[in-house]
Write a structure and sequence with these properties.
271 residues, alpha+beta, 3-stranded antiparallel β-sheet, two-stranded antiparallel ribbon, 11 helices, 11 strands, 15% strand, elongated
Length: 271
């Protein structure tokens, strides 16, 4: 038995707010009054205990905490216009399951969302330490995730992976019909291009996009050429492969970009 009002007030609510919450919890069957004295004592019901245990489980789940930090950061940057993440910690967006997430939680979330191109984030790092400042601005793709997936990053990622599934391309009804997808064993070809290898290249380009160091102009061309690879038009595919083949050679990028460029050139040479 506990003084429920005092416990609830300890979460940061005012006394009158805590009292209203307690009355609502009693009406909802979450707690029951065991002593109606001036300092009433309450105990949680079975339903109330189940909710508490579920909340404790989620708090201990580091993956869940990371996902919620990403969701809340995306919501905050969309609703407020973003800015210094330190301001987020002092808002209602920081509260998840009755506890406030930390700046470190949101700085990590900002890095992940920046890699996914859902937000643009600029970081200030201390020497020998982690991020000490992060400024975030939501991107159009981030708004799409917010609007279409209710900010559920995991659901959006799952849908993105599904988009890499089997596809069918028919070119002017005269060329070869190619069916391919991530992890498939397709051996058909699109006018001389191996469909299985093409699907693997597109998947690698999509997943590696966030980690490739490109200029803004090259990044836009990169995205456009990924779509060209999915058209099924041999001439457009060839031009796109030629562009990707220049990654790390004619187009400045990192080691991952060079590796993807090698994959593209191998497809082009083998066609």
């Amino acid at each position: 038995m506990v003084d429920a009002v005092a416990v609830v007030a300890g979460t940061g609510l005012r006394g009158d707010e805590a009292q209203r919450w307690l009355l609502s919890a009693r009406e909802g069957g979450l707690v029951f009054e065991t002593d109606a004295s001036l300092v009433p004592a309450d105990e949680p019901t079975r339903r109330g205990r189940a909710i508490v245990e579920d909340v404790r489980r989620r708090r201990a789940d580091r993956g869940y905490v990371r996902r919620e930090a990403q969701r809340q950061l995306l919501a905050w940057s969309d609703d407020t216009g973003g800015g210094n993440v330190a301001r987020l910690v002092d808002t209602d967006y920081a509260w998840v399951d009755g506890v406030s997430l930390t700046f470190e939680n949101f700085a990590e979330a900002a890095e992940i969302l920046d890699q996914e191109r859902l937000v643009t984030a600029k970081f200030v790092r201390a020497w020998g330490a982690g991020v000490v400042r992060a400024d975030v601005t939501i991107q159009p793709l981030g708004r799409t995730v917010r609007d279409q997936y209710n900010g559920d990053i995991a659901a959006w990622r799952a849908a993105t992976r599904a988009d890499l599934g089997p596809t069918v391309n028919i070119v002017h009804n005269t060329g070869a019909v190619a069916v391919g997808g991530a992890g498939s064993m397709v051996t058909a070809s699109v006018q001389g291009f191996d469909a299985a290898a093409m699907a693997q290249l597109v998947e690698a380009l999509l997943h590696g996009r966030a980690a490739i160091d490109l200029s803004p102009d090259d990044a836009a061309t990169y995205d456009a050429n990924v779509e060209e690879l999915r058209t099924g038009d041999p001439s457009r595919i060839r031009r796109a492969l030629q562009w990707f083949g220049g990654l790390g050679r004619d187009i400045s990028t990192n080691a991952l970009g060079s590796a993807l460029g090698g994959m593209a050139m191998a497809l082009l040479i083998g066609s």
